[in-house]
TrEMBL record:
Taxonomic lineage from the root: Bacteria, Pseudomonadati, Pseudomonadota, Gammaproteobacteria, Oceanospirillales
Domain Poly A polymerase head, first and last residues per copy: 15-133
SUPFAM superfamilies hit by this protein: Nucleotidyltransferase, Poly A polymerase C-terminal region-like
Domain of life: Bacteria
Cofactor(s) in the UniProt record: Mg(2+)
Protein family: Belongs to the tRNA nucleotidyltransferase/poly(A) polymerase family.
Domain tRNA nucleotidyltransferase/poly(A) polymerase RNA and SrmB- binding: 160-221
Name by which UniProt lists this protein: Polynucleotide adenylyltransferase
Molecular functions (GO terms): nucleotidyltransferase activity
Length: 379
């Protein structure tokens, strides 16, 4: 149902805004459509059947399409960080005023329901020139925009997009102002996780580093410049057959696999990382340590399998062996052969033989080691 033929919006001044407008002009698929309503009140929206969902400003869900309709608003800086704003939403706020609060010109375009472009800040021109440019000096009022700009570059860099020089300067100003330290961990991680799903996530981290933002946000990544560059290169080298859902997690694991347990833990705590990211980062680090050994033996391989909890989580083993294969295919073949053999040993067989309790655990470990010795020696 188009807004032009929608009874719920009949008589309202509505505009399609944001990513749907931008990506349609790039020829990209648009999953979600957001709308701005000019000249309306919350009471009027609810009379038309819209359901209010906005906590900090008036946003409503369409009664049938469930698309988001936000009342036009302005924002004024009143504190630190992403949430330090006073929001003003009223019927007298114009579309141009609403668009002026957005981060980049390519995100500050609107369309009428009939498809007519409203572009007061030159977004179409910057889109054609492949430039990410801030809308106004108010860019510096929201430190999250540093991360968002870096993320958009990670998405569009392969199309030839660049960040405007004056926008980079403002990103550097925000990085040195101390404002980034007021961002809550969840917001930093949300942008970072999105960036890990973009076409070129290394661009995100490199851009943040170049403007000085990684030092306050993720200092463990940039303690050593050469190690940081090697970590960025690893983002493009992942095990095969990963789903789109799995890819961000594996990219993060490759980014942090060289960090010590203590540094990984500090970074995870600072960003409030989900457990699945923490766990895979640690597993990748253990796998890296195994891969870097000249000739890992049965005790080394068993310690690795114990460390990644392979006996209870056997699905972890094949992708980690595939990770080894990227740099050490010979070792990966040996690990795969050893794993196939040792994984066939089941605890219930030993129980049937009369082993129980601690004795069962010791015998299971002994036999697993014996199998690994045999398989890794090639006998």
């Amino acid at each position: 149902m188009s807004a032009a033929r929608d009874r719920s919006t009949e008589g309202l001044e509505v505009y399609r805004v944001g990513g749907a407008v931008r990506d349609a002009r790039l020829g990209w698929p648009t999953a979600d459509t957001d709308w701005v309503v000019v000249g309306a009140t919350p009471a009027e929206m609810q009379r038309r059947g819209f359901r209010p969902v906005g906590r900090d400003f008036p946003v409503f869900l369409h009664p049938e399409t469930h698309e988001e309709y936000a009342l036009a608003r302005t924002e004024r800086k009143s504190g630190h960080g992403y949430t330090g704003f006073e929001v003003h939403a009223s019927p007298d706020v114009t579309l141009e005023e609403d668009l002026a609060r957005r981060d980049l010109t390519i995100n500050a375009m609107a369309e009428t329901p009939e498809g007519e472009l409203v572009d007061p800040y030159g977004g179409q021109q910057d889109l054609s020139a492949k430039v990410l440019r801030h809308v106004s000096p108010a860019f510096v009022e929201d430190p999250l925009r540093v991360l968002r700009t870096a993320r958009f570059l990670a998405r569009y860099a392969r199309l030839g997009f660049v960040i405007a020089g004056e926008t980079r300067a403002l990103m550097g100003e925000l990085a040195t102002s101390g404002e980034l330290t007021h961002l809550v961990a969840e917001r930093v991680w949300t942008e970072t996780e999105k960036a890990l799903a973009e076409a070129d996530p290394a661009v995100y981290f490199r851009t943040l580093h170049e403007c000085g933002a990684l030092t306050p946000l993720m200092p463990e990544l940039v303690e050593e410049e050469a190690a940081f560059e090697r970590a960025l290169a690893r983002l493009a080298r992942l095990p095969g057959d990963l789903s789109e859902e799995e890819r961000p997690r594996w990219r993060w694991a490759r980014l942090v696999e060289h960090l010590s347990d203590a540094r990984q833990a500090a970074l995870a705590e600072r960003l409030r990382l989900p457990r699945r990211y923490r766990d895979l980062g640690r597993q990748a680090a253990l796998t890296r340590q195994l891969r870097q050994q000249a000739a890992p033996g049965a005790d080394d391989v068993k310690a690795w399998l114990d460390g990644i909890d392979a006996w209870r989580r056997d699905e972890r083993v094949p992708p980690l062996i595939a990770l080894v294969a990227l740099d050490a295919p010979g070792l990966a073949e040996r690990l795969a052969r050893a794993w196939r053999a040792v994984s066939q040993l089941e605890a219930r067989r030993l129980v049937a033989e009369g082993f129980h309790g601690g004795e069962l655990g010791r015998e299971l470990a002994r036999r697993r080691r014996a199998i690994l010795v045999r398989e890794l020696s090639g006998d």
